[in-house]
Amino acid sequence: MGEAMQPIRHIVFDIGKVLLHYDPHLAYKDLIPAEAERRAFLEEVCSNAWNLEQDRGRSWADAEAEAIARHPDKAELIRAFRRRWSMMVPYVYEDSVAVLQDTLAAGYDVTLLTNFAPDTFVEARKRFPFLNATRGVTVSGELGLVKPDLAIYRHHAAAFDLDPAATLFIDDSEPNVEGARQAGWRALHFTGADKLRADLASEGVKLDRAKPRLARA
Question: In the sheet that 137-139 helps form, which strands lie side by side, from edge to edge?
């Protein structure tokens, strides 16, 4: 018979699209009203891959210079990405934050592991106080590492003294979930708060409140 799995002691949450809504289109709807044109801009000019380099620590000045070199006619639209960043993150997922609060109330060791640019994360922490409620956070842009790089999971485990076999990670990105598993963690693919509650229960995580409530930030 195989060795029994350890009980979960550490729970690690991703932030974007798990706890916070994130959609770059929201910042460009009035600047590029035509959906097809807006989508092309966010896929070809200020793409997810371009933005990931800011999550890896690239400065916005360097990011803007790189994109403007490729598309000099779109310089002001490119600069609008950072200027209007707050519009891309308009609200929290209250039902998901309630799950996070319940894991804290139940006594689990809770931390955050996020792909985030350092300066925008400072802004997010001021706007959304729940981001300060856990034991700590690893911000990719402060390290020069991003998920799903194996090194960022190992750094987080070492920084917070996590036992990988007793650690459960929650992320909306399947590659990031797989990265955590490669690091020896258990991991859940997030698709919604109700499913998350069911998945946590299946992992043996016991939460106290059946119907959590969250005061608005």
Answer: 137-139, 109-114, 10-13, 167-171, 186-189
CB 206 within 8 A of CB 9: no
Q: How far is CA 65 from CA 70, 72, 78, 95, in A?
A: 9, 9, 9, 39
Distance separating alpha carbons of residues 82 and 199, to the nearest angstrom: 35
User: Three-state SS for 213?
Assistant: coil
Model confidence pTM above 0.70: yes
Judge contact between 163 and 138, C-beta under 8 A: no
Residue with tokens 């003294």: 161
pLDDT at 208: 72
Structure tokens at 178: 């797989």
Calpha distance 112→10 (Å, rounded)? 11
Neighbouring C-alpha atoms within 13 Å toward the C-beta of 36: 0
Spans of the chain, pLDDT less than 70: 1-3, 209-217
